Amino acid sequence: MKLGFHLSCLLAGLGIGLAQAGEVELVMSPFEISPQGDVSVFATPIDVQNGVVAVAFVTAPDVVTTPGYVNTVVRAGSQVNGIWQWTTTRIDTHTLLDPYHTQPSLAFDRNGYLHVAYNLHNLPWQYVVSHQPYDVSQFDFNGQPVTLGQLDELRLANKTHYPDAGKAAIPGNQITYPAFFKNHAGDLYVSYRFAMRPARGWEERARAAGVARYDADTRNWIAVGGSVPLGAGDAEYAGKSNPSTTVFAYDPGYIPYLVTLAFDTDDALHAVWTWWDRASNESGAVTVLPSYRKLADPKQSSAIANAVTGRIPGWPTNAVFNTAKSLAIAANGDVLAILEPQGRNRKLLRLDRATGTWGAAEDTPYSASKILVDRDGNEWLFASGLNLFKRAPGGNWSRPFGIGRNLCDPRPVYSQTEHSFYILAKTCPARDKAVVYRYRLD
Prior knowledge:
Layout: H1 7-10, E1 23-32, E2 46-49, E3 52-59, E4 69-80, E5 83-96, E6 105-108, E7 114-117, E8 121-123, E9 127-132, E10 135-141, H2 148-157, E11 175-182, E12 188-195, E13 207-215, E14 220-224, E15 226-229, E16 244-247, E17 254-263, E18 269-277, E19 288-295, E20 326-329, E21 335-339, E22 347-351, E23 362-363, E24 370-373, E25 379-383, E26 385-391, E27 401-415, E28 420-427, E29 433-440
Antiparallel strand pairs: 1-29, 2-3, 3-4, 4-5, 6-7, 7-9, 8-11, 9-10, 11-12, 12-13, 13-14, 15-16, 17-18, 18-19, 20-21, 21-22, 22-23, 24-25, 25-26, 26-27, 27-28, 28-29
């Protein structure tokens, strides 16, 4: 449904300054989702490639056949004769009803296959790949099977026992918080938390941050980071005499949370994350020590980040943060990061590429949660409402441009070929429906 909104017409009567002339289109009409099953901040539930938009979310269960669980659903839409048509596939009927952890993330690889990770809270990889490019009618399971009994044990007794090092296509086991990212070449990456020593007792499993990259030619995942040797009793490894695991970030006194990636035009990897202090009495939603690192060549082995290296300056060690973050690379190579200090407005930080120093944190307008950069170098913020803000390099933020009404939790992606943003959002305050808008910048 094209709304045909050119901003000069839309906003003139409202007294709102222009973000940029453009056209807004409702791509996906409100689609029912589970309001109890998703308040997550880690998931990457939307991607667009080759004219196909893919989204994923959890929907209400069949209370007769699957009590205590929700469904994981994937949809793909494309235009046929100017009309958006959608295909919907339910890929899982026993997704744990866990509003913070088990939501799906997805992305297309550069050959058009859709990758979906879902239903993960200290579980082996639950992971599927579309059988055909740009087609969600059939998926191949490339994860590690779990039984309904094992899921019930986690749901009812909060127990997980998966001692092996991982048997899925993606490295690692006891996975939480999967999120997909792509570099400028279209190569796919995934970040996640995993247990380095999954055969140990709960407190000794050494939860670390993992990052893996996907080789679309060989269709293999390769872990990014440094190697850690494992000892007897750390993990069950089949056929390995000198087992080890590859780790992106780990510290024995902390647990890394929500490693968020972005890539510059040289395809160097940039990452931000925070840490949970294991000695604190706080929940995992209360994190500290915002950190950053850059890998010029993610294909090469690298040092393992810890809670001392890469700490972003300007924050006291007792400053606490929500776990959500956003990351983008400016046209001049500066790093743009959004952090969420608890009880305060979200903050935008800028790492100057030329000097290697972080500038002073600034409030994001309307406490915007996401940042992207378009092909012309303009920087964009996305806030609930929906409200969008734009600034040219070195300029000031525009006044807000509103899309839709009573929408929250924006998850935007940018299509460079279409010069458009696609924004998945929820209807609020109920959060019981999802919509997708397209904002064309030309």
